[in-house]
Amino acid sequence: MRQRSRQIIKLDDVAQQAGVSPSTVSLYIRYPEKVSERTGAKIQHAIDQLGYVHNKIASQFTGGRSSSMAVVLPSLANIIFSRVIQQIERTVSEQGYQLSIASHDHNLEKEEAQVRAILQWSPAVIAIAGADHKPETLKMLENSGVPVVQMWQVDGSNFSAQVGNDHIHIGYEAARFLVESGCKKLGYFTTRFAEDIRARKRYEGFCHALAELGVSVTLVDIPRTENIYQASRETLTKTLIKERGMDGIFCTSDAIASALLMEACDRGIRVPDQLSILGFGDFPSSAWMSPVSLSSVNLNADVIATRTAEMMLKMGSDENYHGEVCDVGFEIMPRGSTKLPIYTA
Question: Which stretches make up the HTH lacI-type domain (predicted)?
Fold first, then answer.
């Protein structure tokens, strides 16, 4: 998607589509209660069809540029997301930009509302996590003329600028890593599986590799709760009772993996001899867990932050630059919770 190559949808376009005057559209946007219900419905239908977003500060940027940029993420609770945001903010602020941050908690309806609100303030560039968005969100972004960088995931054709990882490949290599360490019955531990497209992509690759190797896998979707650590520990106990012989687990985050590791150690399960545990994200604490350090997948998050910020700055200053696809790669970091020596994808 190259937003600036398309005609930007304006208020006059909405008026023409709805068959009303521009002043009526303007009145509806500012004071919808002052427009008849029938006329308001026609205008709203035109807005939805065209993907129009009202620009609250267009007059400030006539002949100039916006001094703001924005990042839209599924969560700020993840320590890796937070670290990347800090690095992006530091880089763009050095060039005079203010960074707005929105978090939608894996709720695509909320993401749509956030993108609409952000676009009303005409940011120079938006970075948005992942490739899974509502069609209405994509239409708004495409028609806005605002450049977009897709971060955390290189997948799909929605945006020409992408920085991140191939999550199917990560899942594939994680499965091979565990099987090569001697695991014969695997579990894939996640939470909010239906909402997390990157977790689903990793599971797709995980299952593909295991099918090739003739190894079974059990998907374990941990119940959503405020205390993911406690829920993870309780889920491990129930799963090992039900799935006897499970000897390897790949988790969708180090938060889950560290909880499983603590529960296994507390229950006298020998890690990694009886159970191998592989995390995802390579949190700073993972290498220092005791009595067993946690093996994990390192996403090269610092590289994601650096390349995303660089691409945002270049797209904000050069209208002829539409970005590129940058797969930053990953590395499986073997530690005490798995058996193999270092393995690089």
Answer: 9-63
Q: pLDDT value at position 57?
A: 55
CATH code, domain carrying 31: 1.10.260.40
pTM over 0.90: no
Q: Do residue 240 and residue 259 come from a single domain?
A: yes
Q: In whole angstroms, give the CA distance from residue 52 to residue 31.
A: 17
Do 21 and 119 fall into the same domain? no
Residues 6+ apart with CB under 8 A from 188: 203, 206, 217, 218, 219, 220, 249, 250, 252
* Strand-pair category, 148-153 with 325-327: unpaired
Q: Judge if 151 and 232 occupy the same domain.
A: no
What is the span of the domain harbouring residue 153? 66-164+299-328
User: Cα separation of 116 and 62, whole Å?
Assistant: 21
Beta bridge partners of 248: 186, 276
Q: How far is CA 75 from CA 85, 103, 159, in A?
A: 11, 5, 21
CATH number at residue 233: 3.40.50.2300
169 confidence band (pLDDT: 50, 70, 90): very high
| pLDDT exceeds 80 at position 61 | no
Rounded to 10 degrees, the C-alpha dihedral 286/287/289/290 comes to 160
Cα–Cα dist 278/179, whole Å = 12
